[in-house]
Amino acid sequence: MKCATWLNPPSRVGRRKRATSSDLAEIESALNDMIANNQNRDAFNEADIRYHEAVLQSVHNPVLQQLSVAISSLQRAVFERTWMGDEGNMPKTLQEHKALFDAIRHQDSNAAEQAALTMIASSTRRLKEIT
């Protein structure tokens, strides 16, 4: 998970081309699908992958975009193991994703970086709990 901190793009949004309205629509659509499918593991995970792919694309960094297939594969493996639809975890997961979307939408690179780091910490915690 250490490389995820380096690879996670939201903190770089402020230093690169800003997310376009199309980028924001893709992120928001995936987030809405996550919310709608929060008790359906497969549909939720697919929406979660789309969310992170859309965030990655919004950075407009060619190197990260070339790595997106590998990053998505890693995320699939992690998300499959860390999905927790219970009332103690799902609201927090959705709030973390919304916080990142809001930070990107408001072009707040510091808040985006903090939101990304919070998401990584939560995933790391869940992985440790199940291993």
From TrEMBL:
Residues covered by the GntR C-terminal domain: 17-120
Keywords of this entry: DNA-binding, Transcription, Transcription regulation
Record-linked InterPro entries: GntR_C, TF_FadR/GntR_C
Superkingdom assignment: Bacteria
TM stretches of this protein: none
Residue span of region Disordered: 1-20
GO MF, one example: DNA binding
Pfam family, one: FCD
PANTHER family: GALACTONATE OPERON TRANSCRIPTIONAL REPRESSOR, TRANSCRIPTIONAL REGULATOR, GNTR FAMILY
UniProt name for this protein: Galactonate operon transcriptional repressor
Underlying gene: dgoR
